[in-house]
Amino acid sequence: MKKTPVMLQLAFILFCIMAVPTAILTWYSGAQILRNSEAAIGESALTGLNANRRLNESALGNLAQDTARLAATNIFDRIRSFETYDEINSNYNNVSLALSVTKELLNLNRRVDGVYSSYFYLNDSDYVFSTDNSITTLERYESIEWITEALEGRRGISGVWVPRKLETGVNVVSYVYPLNRLSSTTRGIIVVNMRESQIGKYLHATEVGDSNYLLLDSGGKVISFNDQSLLLSDGLKLPFLQEILNQESSEGYTFRELDSNRMVYAWSRSALSGWWNVSWSSMDELMMKSRDMQGNIILLTGAIILLGTLLAIFLATWLSRPLRQLVRTIRSKSDLGVVNKNELAFLDMAFKRMQEEEESLFQLLQEREQDTRSLAVHRLLRGEIPPRITEAFPEACYRVVVVSIDQYRRYVGNTNVETRSYHRYLLNAKYESCFPEGILARSVYHNDGCIVIVLNFTPEERGEKGVLIHQALEKIRDESLELLEHSVTIGVSDLADAPEMVALRLFEAMEVIKRRMINGAGSIMYWHDEEEISRKYLDSESSERRILNFLDAGNLGGIFKELQIIRSEISSEDNISYDNIMFIYYQLMGATIKHLRENHIGTGRMIMGRGNVYSILAALDTLDELEEYLHDFFCEIVQSLDRSTSETNHGERIIHYLKEHYREEIVFEDMAKEIGISYSYMRKIVYEQTGNSMIDFVNQLRIEKAKELLLDTELTIKQIAAEVGYYNVQSFNRFFRKYEGMPPSSYKSAKSKSS
Q1: What count of other Cβ atoms lies within 10 Å of the Cβ of residue 743?
Q2: Which pLDDT tens digit goes with each residue over 124-137?
Q3: Which residues contact 448 (CB under 8 A, 6 or more apart)?
Q4: Number of neighbours of residue 653 by Cβ within 10 angstroms
Q5: Are strands 115-122 and 397-405 parallel, antiparallel or unpaired?
Q6: Which residue has the higher pLDDT, 151 or 240?
Q7: If 0-12 CB within 10 Å is exposed, 13-18 middle and 19+ buried, where does residue 39 land?
Q8: How far is 410 from 133, CA to CA, in rounded Å?
Q9: Where does the record place a coiled coil (predicted)?
């Protein structure tokens, strides 16, 4: 094939493309002729009808599942407290929460084709969230009174499908799904309107000829039909439908005479919804097409082969012309040494050669584009001497500056990764441009919010440049604050006369940054060797003992006073080291934890829940932050100790409240507010004292009362359900069976016999 000209190859391929469909068509026509008997046509009609029914059921089922999944999220809990339209529009936060509901409804619409609109109605509110009118009042939206009738007789927690016509004149099938207690604490209804036209598309998905497809509900009402005027009417009045659908079989086909035409009727009933799918077609038309098909296909086959041959030759010549011209051009300009090959083989060799050259060029560009300057700085900071260092740092004197972002943990929490990368890019560019002429600055990002600037200048100018460097550092501090909205602390090392000393100067600058603990954030500090020699050591053992005594007494004021004394002692020492400061606070933290454990007080919830306290202390920058953190730390401990004594009292109040109000519709969040504790804390107390969730405990109270009423009164099941607080009999039966293993009627009968 590599020696055959491209034009002949294309002609052969195109001829095969024409001939293969022709052969398939001929085979298909013969098969169709054999199948066109009455039984085969009936089976085909029923198969197509079932396929359309399953397609429709699948689409409606997916929509129902998506609606249920949406109801199970907490998106509606956020707007549960908004009872009026004016409440939603009262502030921006409420509007944002409401728009998030509308957005979820729009997402629900997009998941299934053909959804016309959807809306959510919060019980007892005066507004709806809709995809066609956004958030609007009930007065300005279509009436929702039909929902009550639609939900009558609903079983379980699933929704119901209701065919209806909107006020806009659009025929839809509405899926009505009330939110239930198992999935959400919010009470409301989701309504999704599927276009009747979309259901019609599903029903006509495998339509052949002029077939008619009809969808009826279990009562015979027309849900979808070609004739739009018959929608929502009684479909059983159509010819033969009453007779066909009264048969015992849920699916099948039959033949009937209608207006002198022999018709094939197929029907199938959905096991899920009880809806009837019916189709009918003309047998005469189907058989006529089959008879005509055989003769037409023979003629069509011959015509296609003849035309295909001519078209293949023409297309092959036309399509291969640019390729042949390209090959001639390449051969005239370069000698690739390819002979006895066709055009495709020649171009394959040429493109491989070009690809190899392109890869070599790309590799070379990558090596050239590497940022040699940043690489040299990083290697210099690690103590390595990069090659050609004089190109990056031509002068003999060095000074290392470290710019550290204050409260770095807070900065990371307030920004995302992309923003931080953008800040680093801008800061590196700004820092290098802040220094005056004669001072070469190279800036790189180091780690943990630190940017290192290596300054390089001549020995003769090092004294004169001191003031200019300080002015540049002040500019860096101000511009960093403006960009980051966080202050920065700047540490400056001593001078270095050789590149080998730069790594040591980096260590000095990082050590200077630690003075931020005493000097405060936003400082510019310089390294002084004499300070390291005159360091003093400070101990706070006496303050620790007093703090532990105050902790036993629950005296927060005394603890705070001792923390201020420790802070004052540290601040009064000019040359105290950073390590000494952290040792004091580490020792205080360790003594507190040890004291709590020695007194058999659990530290898991009050201390370990805060994370690694020692890592948190190490990440704090100043004495102010340390003191603030320890204030919160000891407050939480004292409050936790107080909370354990009051937990028993809360439990008694909660159990008493539930026993008094179990017949009512209890909103647990409001109940928690009335008692004066959080909802999550209330759930924890109930579980610890009863071993059950709050919902299970309330249902148990209701079932116990229902058992008494079943045995001691003559009330009906419905009256007893209402008496113990159930909205409907179905819910009462379900929960009674869950806790007693039998329905209420069986329980009453069993107890009556035993007595």
Answers
A1: 15
A2: 899 999 998 889 99
A3: 408
A4: 15
A5: unpaired
A6: 151
A7: exposed
A8: 41
A9: none
DSSP state of 182: T
| Helix and strand counts by DSSP (H, E) for the chain | 28, 16
Structure tokens that stand for 584 in this block: 């004091």
- Cα separation values, 265 from 204, 214, 262, 280, 290, Å: 15, 11, 10, 4, 19
CA–CA dist 62, 635 (Å, integer): 52
Q: Are 407 and 624 contacting, i.e. CB atoms less than 8 angstroms apart? A: no
Residue position matching structure tokens 């086959």: 301
CA–CA separation, 35 vs 32, rounded Å?
Answer: 5
pLDDT digits (tens, 9 = 90+) for 604-640: 555 555 667 777 887 787 888 888 888 888 887 777 6
pLDDT > 80? residue 474: yes
User: How many angstroms separate the CA atoms of 336 and 183, rounded?
Assistant: 72
Strands 440-445 and 251-258: unpaired
3-state secondary structure of 740: helix
Tell me 140's DSSP state: G
Tokens of 186: 């919010």
Contacts of 177 (CB under 8 A, 6+ apart): 64, 67, 68, 71, 158, 159, 189, 190, 191, 192
Instruction: Kindly calculate the radius of gyration of the chain based on its CA atoms and give it in whole angstroms.
Output: 42
Residues 318-337: b if buried by 16+ CB within 10 A, e if exposed: eebeebeeebeebeeeeeee
Structure tokens given for 695: 């919902």
